[in-house]
Amino acid sequence: MSKYARIEAAPVEERYARGWYCLGKAVDYGSKPVALNYFGTKLVAYRGEDNQLIVLDGYCPHMGADLAQGYVEGNSIRCAMH
């Protein structure tokens, strides 16, 4: 006979802090990816070809590589492992 066990899950933590936070001066971010660490999370910031500042999770969703080591292509970032 199989036994059933009750698994108690911990409350889900909020992934992002609420509100607006300064991550630096906008002029300090260019077309090269910059690694950031805020809210216990690694992020990557860069400007795409349209000059808009973009901030994303710092890790490649496919291989988990550091996106700050990647390359900006258009308005996207390419993982260094791809």
Describe it for me?
Helix content is 0%, strand content 28%. It has 82 residues and is mostly beta strands. The protein has a domain at 28-78: 3-layer Sandwich (Rieske Iron-sulfur Protein), CATH 2.102.10.10. Strands 1-2-3 form a three-stranded antiparallel beta sheet, with no helix packed on it. Strands 4-5 form a two-stranded antiparallel sheet. The termini are far apart.
Strand and helix layout:
Blueprint: E1 34-38, E2 41-47, E3 53-57, E4 71-73, E5 76-78
Antiparallel strand pairs: 1-2, 2-3, 4-5
Strand content: 25-35%
Helix fraction by DSSP (H/I, runs of at least 4): under 10%
Annotation, overall tally of beta strands: 5
Poorly predicted runs are none
Order of helices and strands: EEEEE
Q: Largest sheet, if any?
A: 3 strands, antiparallel
Q: Termini separation (Å)?
A: 49 Å
Question: What is the CATH superfamily of the domain at 28-78?
Answer: Rieske [2Fe-2S] iron-sulphur domain
Strand arrangement, major sheet: 1-2-3
C-alpha Rg, in Å?
A: 18 Å
**Overall pLDDT, averaged?**
86
CATH topology of the domain at 28-78: Rieske Iron-sulfur Protein
Number of helices: 0
What does the overall shape look like? elongated
User: Which class of secondary structure composition applies to the elements?
Assistant: mainly beta
- CATH top level of the domain at 28-78? Mainly Beta
CATH architecture of the domain at 28-78: 3-layer Sandwich
